[in-house]
Amino acid sequence: MDLFDRALEKDDASKPMPERMRPRRLEDFVGQEHVLGPASALRRAIEADQVPSLILWGPPGTGKTTLARIVAERTGAVFVPFSAVLGGVKEIREIVEAARERRKLHRQRTILFVDEIHRFTRNQQDAFLPHVEAGTLTLIGATTENPSFEINAALLSRCRVVTLRPLTDEEVGVLLERAVSSPLGLSGRVRLTAEAREAIARSAYGDARRALVALEAAAGSVELAGREDISAADAEEALQQKTLLYDKAGEEHYNVVSAFIKSLRGSDPDAALYYMVRMLEGGEDPRFVLRRMVIFASEDVGNADPQALQLAVAALEAVELVGLPEGVLPMSQAAIYLALAPKSNTAIASYALARKLVQEKGALPVPLKLRNAPTRLMESMGYGGGYRYPHNFDGHYVAEEYLPDEIRGERIVRLSESGREKELATRLSELREKAKPG
Questions:
Q1: Are residues 314 and 372 part of one domain?
Q2: CA 72 to CA 62: how far, in whole Å?
């Protein structure tokens, strides 16, 4: 170890382990082989010092900040961090001016790193755009959110999006073993059992930062107890505050909700229950989940099984009454029932057809025979005239046309052959046959 390394170790000693163990060379970077492998375009661009502006998109702890720092170090660029939350247009102007001078006087590039770039305001994005386009600086943004939703098209079109994946358990295990032995980590003061390594890696959900924080906590407990081996029990204690990857305001929220609804629609109760539990364990409001089930009961089951809506509403009321944790029982009951119920989208499809007619044709006159006649004047004008009361006829039905004249004969409701709706479809067919002229 040379003098520089010793000074670096001393300077890093007070930092949290994830910061101390942050790789400083591309060769030490673990994971993301799909974008950093020897034959990858990004690896070649880094080695050739031709890195374009990048948007690094991926879950927490996958190496976005580390990769940005390594790119700057490897290419000899000045690394300038910028806060999308705290920085304003004034700071942007100062950064751009400094980058321009650096480029002019020293022929040195500037890499501007923007963490949480999805929090960029419109003014910030507009302020950076011309300077990214002119090559005054290279922008590297990091985000956990889908950039196509959060970054304006003009700026996004000038950047290459690099998608980072959660680390595998094996890759997290490599980082843990490295941290145990490294002078920047635990310096070999403790040993990590295979069971503890697997427990931490499994519970990190691909997040290197989370794994290293847990390792540091477990090591601290072991050292205080005068022991050397970190056991599975030590690891589990350090992971007591376990949180699932489920950002209620972010993309993963929508991913899991979408998977839940599609599993219900696909009649897969196993997957539906799994995604429901993911939401609840991630801190989602159970009422949000139940509202989705109530909507689903009409949108995707409907009259194929009318009891589905009753059960979904009952589950909502039950959870309001008993709360959690007992409320997971009616929620599970409802989710299983909805997944296994016969499916029909007649309600939403019919509504869409009716809405289209209303939008295209406007407010068509209601036939006079269907209008109310509360005054003599209105009665004399023909309001209500010729209306036939169905209960006065056999079967409580009389063939009649109720739609406005301009769309007479339109067929808006198209029933399926699924579940109870098949019976309704048969009845509707019979009624429409009776209503035919002649």
A1: no
A2: 18
| CA–CA dist 242, 200 (Å, integer) | 10
Is the model's pLDDT at 243 over the cut of 70?
no
In the chain, how many domains are there?
A: 4
Domain that holds residue 301: 251-340
User: Between 341 and 397, whose confidence is greater?
Assistant: 341
CATH number of residue 206's parent domain: 1.10.8.60
| Mean pLDDT across the chain | 85
**Are 299 and 399 within one domain?**
no
- Tell me if 294 is assigned to some domain: yes
Helix-, strand-, coil-residue percentages of the chain, each rounded to 5: 60, 5, 35
Helices (H), 51-152: 64-75, 89-106, 122-134, 147-150
* The model scores a pTM over 0.90: no
Query: Tens digits of per-residue pLDDT, 255-297?
Result: 888 899 999 999 999 999 999 998 887 777 888 899 999 999 9
Give the C-alpha distances (Å, rounded to integers) separating 67 from 24, 42, 112, 174: 9, 11, 13, 18
